[in-house]
Design a protein that fits this description.
The protein starts with a helix and ends with a strand. It is built from eight helices and seven strands; from the N terminus they run αααβαβαβαβαβαββ. Helix 3 runs parallel beside helix 4, helix 6 (157-163) packs parallel to helix 7 (180-187) and helix 7 packs parallel to helix 8. The protein is α/β, with parallel strands linked by helices and 247 residues long. S-adenosylmethionine is lined by residues 77-79, 103-109, 127-130, 133, 156-158, 174-176.
Length: 247
């Protein structure tokens, strides 16, 4: 007769103890493994975030030093620095990502728009008809480090803008003023609700509306679903119109 059949309770207890010990060992191992995974994962995320931050800081430095070096040399009907900042702020504040610019020239406004889009993860399509200015803009975009955020097109915007698929959430209109109303009509169906249509050289005061933008403003203000204000800080004038409803 074996000891197990003489002292069955004892054997039963020791089996339970062994089982519990095994379970504790297993749990310790699982916990250790879990902690290791968490450590590796958080380190991975941490280094990914810090390399993203570093990239963004490097880009900021590059854009700033480019803009500083060119501060007084924009001579191709380009917007002023303060107007560029107005566009930048609208994009960042509203987290816009799908931008269209009509009238690139040599790229000053495009740089401010694309810089803002580098913060929101967006992209700009910009259109210019003059080949010389278009080529210079390409060089400027490259030098500013913003080429990845810009799809620059050499085209007649009268033809291209109606063909663009969209959708857009930000538009900056700065080409031939007499065509502004047509650009607006072509873009409105592709402008998302909550999106913004801005136009340069448009002022609140009728007396200051030059270059034939009067028809554009009258049309804009007749649209009940567009909420329009005029930037008062801008010497040139910028109209800022938010699309509040589909129609
Ligand atoms: C006022 S400038 C744009 C300045 C630019 N937004 C900036 O601040 O750097 C107007 C530009 O629109 C371009 N333009 C005029 N008519 C156009 C058209 N039909 N299609 C495309 N571009 C046009 C002109 O060649 C000119 O370079």
């Amino acid at each position: 007769m074996g000891a197990e059949s003489v002292f069955p309770q004892y054997f039963h207890c020791s089996n339970i103890k062994i089982g519990v010990l095994k379970m504790i060992r297993k749990t310790k191992f699982i916990l250790l493994f879990f902690c290791l995974c968490v450590l590796v994962f958080t380190r991975g995320i941490g280094s990914c975030l810090s390399s993203k931050l570093e990239k963004a800081q490097n880009l900021d430095e590059k854009v700033r030093s480019f803009l500083d070096s060119r501060r007084y040399s924009w001579r191709d009907m380009n917007v002023s620095e303060s107007d560029g900042k107005v566009l930048y702020d609208i994009i960042v504040k509203n987290n816009y990502t799908k931008a269209l610019e009509i009238g690139t020239s040599t790229g000053h406004s495009g740089i401010w728009i694309a810089w803002a889009l580098s913060k929101t993860g967006g992209k700009l399509i910009t259109v210019e008809i003059n080949e010389g200015r278009y080529r210079e803009a390409l060089e400027n975009f490259e030098e500013a480090g913003l080429s990845d955020y810009i799809d620059a097109r050499l085209a007649d915007a009268h033809e291209l803008v109606p063909e663009l698929k969209g959708p857009f959430d930000f538009v900056f209109c700065d080409a031939d003023k007499g065509w502004y109303k047509n650009y607006l009509i072509a873009v409105l169906p592709k402008l998302e609700v909550g999106g913004c249509f801005t136009a340069h050289n448009v002022s609140a005061r009728r007396g200051r509306r030059q270059y034939g933008v009067g028809g554009f403003v009258d049309y804009l203000e007749s649209l009940s679903y567009m909420e329009t204000t005029y930037d008062s800080s801008s010497w040139s004038g910028i109209s800022i119109s938010y699309k509040r409803a589909k129609k």
